[in-house]
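Model it.
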Amino acid sequence: MLRSIFASLCVSFALLAVAGENSHGPGVVGLAELPAEATETLLLIDRGGPYPYRRDGVVFKNLEKRLPQKARGYYREYTVATPGRRDRGARRIISGAQPPAVFYYTDDHYQSFRRIMR
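Modeled.
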């Protein structure tokens, strides 16, 4: 019986590894898995700024509809600095609610999002 349970667990872990999912499941990312710059951006959001980019804190309209549909103004976007880039790059954190209660990370300029588990 114990061997059967152990074998099932091994198969489950192997399937997760093959699928390429992180330890939190698809669409979710833990703080430890984020780049250091994203953690810095989260701390700035928690403090209410000041932000290094003038577009930080603007309303994110969710035009791509890749996040849950909410009323206009629910989402705000913040830049996650990319070392070696002079522009804002593609990395962002999107917060939801006021005060922010939910956070999403994208590293491909809104093509995909992962919810941040804090």
